[in-house]
Amino acid sequence: MNPRVVEAVCHDNLTISLTFSNGERRKFDVRPYLQYPVYTPLASVPYFLQGKASHGTVEWPNEEDFCPDTLYLESVPDMNSPLGNAA
What mean pLDDT comes out for the span 4-32? Predict the structure, then answer.
């Protein structure tokens, strides 16, 4: 099982800075997923910025979310995250 999200910061460029349960800081780009109907509401920056870490993933008010494995496997290391560098 891959690590789960414990902290998330959504940015106005439609990326998310993530901290995982193993201490890794990674960045996930949502833009490639906006072509799928379930994720089109996330194209609205004010709505996107409402995303929060919840139950090991990132969730928005209307219950859009990503599989925690997708967030981990499709994200890239982010040493410049506002959440700090990995330990």
Answer: 97
